[in-house]
Amino acid sequence: MFQRQIFRKMFFSYISIILICFLVYTAVVFYENNIISRERTVRLCEVKAEKLCNTLKRRILYAENVVINLNYSQSLKKLYLSHVSGSGR
Known about the structure:
Blueprint: H1 2-71, H2 74-85
């Protein structure tokens, strides 16, 4: 009878230890998965922000080129001068 109680206590102790180890391992796996997911989300946001920045830079450069071309346009200067001098009325 005494040996049976000892066996039962030892059995439940071993099962408890195995279960605790399994739960700790599972918690570590979930924690690592969460960290990887966060890093992936941050990287994705960085890539999207970089694409947006590049698109805005291209559009600003295009607008600057349009302004430069308008500044050097002779026909636009003639139109402006004719309007300022009053001959365009």
